[in-house]
């Protein structure tokens, strides 16, 4: 009986070790985004159908699951045209992870508007970029860490994927 248990354990050991390897690869790749972890606060603007709207708020980024995922939560408020009080302009929840099989970063987004998406993040010098195709054209967001350590992000739109027009800009400072 002891021999059978020992053989079973020895047989299961390689399976157990190989099951843990992707998590270690994921953790190593996710370390490249550790600079994002923390509480960020700042402001920006977005062009909407009614014109340009300013906003201010926070992004909270937390490492989760022992380092294999980042949870990103954004909450931004501003005054809508004609309104006296501030209201939520943009509220989002996202998960960033590394897909070891595809060798890409995934960005799963959820907006308070009810929309969601699964996007690929491309690492660029000093930050990352992600985008999507819509019925009207292409949208891309580029996030870079500035020399001052600020989170600087822009959003751009293109109908032909060649000529881009900026419709969003945000600068955040780390507060925690």
Question: In summary, what is this structure?
Answer:
The chain is α+β, with helices and mostly antiparallel strands and 176 residues long.
Structure write-up:
The protein is an alpha+beta fold and 176 residues long. It has one domain: Calycin beta-barrel core domain (Lipocalin, Beta Barrel). The protein has one helix and ten strands; from the N terminus they run H-E-E-E-E-E-E-E-E-E-E. It has one helix at 2-30, and strands at residues 38-48, 51-64, 69-79, 86-99, 104-111, 116-124, 127-133, 138-145, 151-158, 165-174. It has a ten-stranded antiparallel β-barrel. Strand 1 and strand 2 (51-64) form a beta hairpin. The longest helix is centred in the first third of the chain and has 29 residues, at 2-30. The protein is globular, with a radius of gyration of 21 Å. It starts with a helix and ends with a strand. Mean pLDDT is 88; it is low at 6-10.
